[in-house]
Amino acid sequence: MAFDLIVKGGTLPDGAVADIAISGDRIAAIEPSIEAEAARVVDASGNLVSPPFVDPHFHMDATLSYGIPRINASGTLLEGISLWGELKPLLTHEAVKERALAYCDWAVSMGLLAIRSHVDVCDDRLLAVEALLAVKKEIEPYIDLQLVAFPQDGLYRSPTARENTIRALDMGVDVVGGIPHFERTMADGTRSVTELCEIAAERGLMVDMHCDETDDPMSRHIEQLAYETQRLGLHGRVNGSHLTSMHSMDNYYVSKLLPLIAEAEVSAIPNPLINIMLQGRHDTFPKRRGMTRVKEMLAMGIRVGFGQDCCLDPWYSLGAADMLDVAHMGLHVAQMSSPAEMRKCFDMVTTESAAIMGLEDYGLELGKAASLVVLEAGDPIEAVRLRAARLAVVAKGKVVAERPSSAAQLSLPGRPASVDRRHRI
Ligand SMILES: [Zn+2]
């Protein structure tokens, strides 16, 4: 039997060395050694072969808009939101689409092949929704894009947001979003969580809310989100993004809160790059880290994925579509330093985030979509440490990106001719 593609000799995330054979867009065999013919062979020997990176929290309608019409001077979330408000009326369908597609090229080159993007619905034209639905279709052969209807200016605070959220869902947006901490009052925030969860339950959709993205320890909308998940039987389909206020909450309250989140099977998506950049801006010293309680949630059995959130937009002036940057920052900020914790950080930008997104076709298993990445690293922890080069990226059976080794040639007397910073001693 001849295959279309064989990825040979790679080390899988569990440490096994295997060949992966691909027919069409499917994984056809994973065995220690496959001798069959193939139209193309990718040599992965000595390198890590992983399922692709997954970004469970992104804003593709805003990406690559850095500096338009101006730069965020204070560096805060709130100035970012008002700056985005200035940019929104200037958006065109073509420009949003072009920037999104350019970003997706970056993503492919970095082995990032599944993205959940929020799309702002607080523009009565719903132009960004239309543009990203078109992008979703166009990139479907290589990236799985999931869209979240996101009422950025508040479901109730913005006069047409509620109606626009429904319109966006009718147009085919996949997930129900929200931003309870941005409503006018705590009570409105609570009410928005209830209504949005009811909409999701009625339509059989998942929920992913920006939730408590603030340093205010009294911002406790995650409690309502867990409650509504439980009440409406949405277990396993609801996610709270950011949850930064939990960093500042009273410990006794958190000891009650975490079991409620676990019981409702609500997942969490911290966004380490953005949280560490935007939060704590009102503090003098000591400054809070502004990231939620990752280790404590994991210890309670709560599923956690790391998101990138932003790339060159009103909120963040950096970003490179590199989920290993995200894992690296998350590992440091959450002090995930044991071998098991470091390994978990890799899972949080691959398998854990795929599970949050409900990607059933994801993973290095027989019959699943043939999407993978060959990383210049020996194992997942080394991949995070080095933010390893993506030597080859395969998307749904096709090699879509390749690059040479990042090893440097050395000119030092008596020392090796090249160095790649892999730990082999
Ligand atoms: Zn966000």
Automatic annotation (TrEMBL):
Q: Which domain of life is it from?
A: Bacteria
What GO molecular functions are on record for this protein? Answer: cytosine deaminase activity; isoguanine deaminase activity; metal ion binding
Q: Does the keyword Hydrolase apply?
A: yes
Record InterPro entries: Amidohydro_3, Metal-dep_hydrolase_composite, Metal_Hydrolase, Metallo-hydrolase_Enzymes
Q: Which GO annotations describe the biological process of this protein?
A: cytosine catabolic process
Keywords linked to the UniProt accession: Hydrolase, Metal-binding
* Limits of the Amidohydrolase domain: 40-400
Pfam families documented for this protein: Amidohydro_3
The yes or no answer to whether the keyword Metal-binding is present is: yes
CDD domains assigned to the protein according to its UniProt record, in alphabetical order: Bact_CD
Q: Report what the protein is called.
A: Cytosine deaminase
Q: Which organism is it from?
A: Aquibium oceanicum
